[in-house]
UniProtKB/TrEMBL annotation:
GO terms for biological process, alphabetical: negative regulation of cell division
One GO CC term, this protein: cytosol
UniProt keyword list: ATP-binding, Nucleotide-binding
Protein name, per record: AAA domain-containing protein
PANTHER family xref list: SEPTUM SITE-DETERMINING PROTEIN MIND HOMOLOG, CHLOROPLASTIC-RELATED, SLR0110 PROTEIN
Organism, as annotated: Thalassococcus profundi
Amino acid sequence: MTYAFSELDLDQHGEDATPVIARMQVFVVAPQPAVAQRIRASLGTDEMIDVQVFHSDLTRLVLDDTADWGTCDFLMVHVTAEDSSVMAAIHCLTSRPGVRMHCVAMVNGPVPQTLEARLLSAGVSRVLPLPAIKEPAAETSATPPKPADTAAAPATSRLHLSETAADRLAGMLEAAPAPEYQDSPAAAEPVAPDATPAIPAQAETPRPAPRTRPADEAEVGAGRITTVLRARGGAGASTLAVNLALDILREAKSPRRVALIDLDIQNGSVGVLLDLPDSAPMSALLCNADTPDDSFLDAAMARHSSGIDVLAAPDIFAPLTALTPDMVEALMQALQKRYDHIIVDMPQAMLDWIEPVFERAVQALIVTDTSVPSIKRTRRLIDVLTEEHMTLTVQVVINKERRPMILSDAQKEAARLLGRRLEHWIPDDPARARKALDAGVPMIQSGPKSRPGKAISALSQTLFALTRTEAS
């Protein structure tokens, strides 16, 4: 494995460098004109933003293929209920290969937790409340409203849905059975394909059965390893690793065996974050250069009150060379036989014995921020991991920063340097984080409804839903 890095020149742009987009294309989709205009007004007047407003339902807009989705950078859509067809439309748009679109869902009033979870799972980047707006009664127009500011686009740049996706959405729209809790049979009457249905005042979209998070489909003992790395000291990698491990177990719909491993043998803090002692068995293993096996796991794995098993850092200051590749290989093998999910908090140093971890891992998370030094280090880590482990999924998590509505120039430049979108953000809450640290109670337990708690839970759903999908 190669660990020598060349300095990245932040000011030098090669011929193949992707230029920063001069104007951002924003699509606003809302059936009610008043709501659409309110969302439009919230964007202000910025010469760097082009806004197109569509007075339409998102699902119908996707099926009709009247919008040039291939040029959309930012989609803001008004969502009124847990409509499966809307969720499917969002998923189809955000999951297309090569699409670089951020989607924000605007919801009336306080955001229901179940609706927020479904939207985030469908591919929405952020869910925001929209104050309820009662539009004055107006005469029904014979001509359906046309999308505003919609310019004709070449057919070659359109984002077309596959026939399967289109058929699935069409079936949801045209052939959905009447739910048992509809007020009257008339609500379920079929609509002619060419007719524009009139929306009665105060009508609510029937609420379908809640869609649960994807079931854990990995075989028992499959041992899915996720590594957590830091771009700098204090980035919050250990805190994220601890909270992700707890959230996997908290949200699992079937019994899961989750292990949290602290391989930062000199500066590990997993034990402190969980109010657990450092590991004496780990110290003995390092001192004696033993090969870890099942008996070692029996002695070393500490059961936390949440139900996860934890291998804390040693209770001595061990040299980084105390571990060897063979020892780590044996440890990972034993863990994979015993656990379904293994979260590994990695050391900041790039050592030869971390190689077996990446060889067995399914994904790596790099915890960073958008400062120039952190972005440089993150890019180095991405280059090393993708060069040596081409099948390893690498995700970047921007920690202690709130997701912006629109990326600043510096954030756009950071995304360009990393060669990927900045998709995962964990907002900062210093007071709550300090309280959780001092009490040894992770934020996912002490403040699950806080902004960081919700962001971590949404990240967990995204990461481990993807992992389980790949395993199926």
